[in-house]
Amino acid sequence: MEVTTERRDGVLTVRVDGRIDGSNAAGFEKTVRAAIKESDRAVLIDCTDLSFISSAGLRVVLLTGKSLMGRNAGFALCSMSEPIREVFRISGFDTVVAIHPTREEAFVSFGP
């Protein structure tokens, strides 16, 4: 798994390449938490290159979202392949976390 981050207009984008599973979910969580700054108004996880996510990875997504909601910051995911989207659909996470088809649509959802 490789994680890269970038900021644009107060939105932190976290791009994941590879798998998030039990062997690296804690490292993913640590990386994401370390990247989030108090000044970030939203966090977007770009799943373009995410090839697999386990329940441990879903847990990290949920905890990150809850943490951001606690400080009124936006949180969303975008650009999922159909197999990854299916994992979110089956687990019910698609009703808890905003999922957008593209990065740009996610940015628009965060407002100005």
* Biggest β-sheet strands, sense, barrel: 5 strands, mixed
Percent range of helical residues: 25-40%
The span between the termini is 32 Å
The structural domain count equals 1
> How do the SSEs run, as a string of H and E?
EEHEHEHEH
What is the architecture at the second tier of CATH?
A: 2-Layer Sandwich
Structure in a nutshell:
The protein has 112 residues and is an alpha/beta fold.
Descriptive notes:
- This protein is an alpha/beta fold and 112 residues long.
- The chain has a single domain, classed as STAS domain (Transcription Regulator spoIIAA), CATH 3.30.750.24.
- It is 38% helix and 33% strand.
- The chain has 4 helices and 5 strands, in the order E-E-H-E-H-E-H-E-H.
- It has a 5-stranded mixed β-sheet.
- Helix 1 runs parallel beside helix 2.
- The protein is globular and about 35 Å long.
- The relative contact order is 0.18.
- The model has no long low-confidence stretch (mean pLDDT 96).
